[in-house]
Amino acid sequence: MLRLAVMVSGGGTNLQAILDAIDSGKITNAKVVKVISNSKKAYALERAAKAGIPAICITRADHPEKEDFNQTLLRELQESGADLVVLAGCLVVIPQCVVDAYPNRIINIHPALIPSFCGTGYYGLGVHEAVLARGVKVTGATVHFVDGGTDTGPIILQKAVEVHQGDTPKELQLRVMQEAEWVILPKAIDLIANGKVSVEDGHVNIAE
Ligand code: GAR
């Protein structure tokens, strides 16, 4: 049974998609053992409470020293016994000490087709604003392993989503979530939990 620690910052719809996929059997061999938020206001914390999952908040305000924040996060992850760390709408830059402790064992959902609209400064609604400003006709979402860079790790799954003429950033964000994020994040977890994902030379192979 793969033990998941899910890191969140906001609404937690991706966390909900994971919990629902476990309940419905779309994800097998995995369970969420802890939810970690960097914001006390995150609605994701209520979703965790409703599902009876232990949740904690680690904020920069409570840990003004960066190294203290980093080490607290690392300790909480280790104490949870997590095998896989899932960044599900987590807006914290993962410290190098955590990346080093979990090589190819941290995954992230990004709301665009990497390598487009990714990297420093591209997160949340801003990604969709940038997509609309550029006028691309197709966007999507990407699940990837986390390495020392921002959105640079090996890509596990991607799914394309059409941009519609006249979309607002919020309309596009919702379509990308519904058609891509809530589909490929649970799918990637299920593949990993069932031993189907390997990484070779920075590329992901998925067993049939
Ligand atoms: C999601 O769209 C996720 O892809 C994005 O934040 C949103 C969180 O929504 N993540 C990033 O931008 C990370 N670079 P949620 O809290 O409802 O899951």
Strand order in space, largest sheet: 3-2-1-4-5-6-7
Rg, Å, rounded: 16 Å
Q: How many helix segments?
A: 6
What kind of sheet is the major sheet? 7 strands, mixed
Proportion of β residues?
A: 15-25%
Name every ligand kind in the structure.
glycinamide ribonucleotide
Succession of helices and strands: EHEHEHEHEHEEHEE
Number of strands: 9
Q: State mean pLDDT (0 to 100 scale).
A: 97
Structural class: alpha/beta
Q: In whole angstroms, how far apart are the ends?
A: 20 Å
Low-confidence stretches: none
Tell me the helix content: 25-40%
Basic shape: globular
Task: Provide a compact summary of the structure.
The protein is α/β, with parallel strands linked by helices.
Question: In words, what does this structure look like?
Answer:
The chain has 6 helices and 9 strands, in the order βαβαβαβαβαββαββ. The protein is an alpha/beta fold and 208 residues long. The protein has helices spanning 13-24, 44-50, 66-80, 96-101, 125-134, 169-193; strands spanning 2-8, 30-37, 55-57, 84-87, 106-110, 138-145, 155-162, 197-200, 203-206. The chain starts with a strand and ends with a strand. It has a 7-stranded mixed β-sheet, with helices on one face. A two-stranded antiparallel ribbon has the order 8-9. The chain is globular, with a radius of gyration of 16 Å. Glycinamide ribonucleotide (GAR) is lined by residues 8, 10-14, 44, 88-89, 109-111, 123-124, 127, 177, 181.
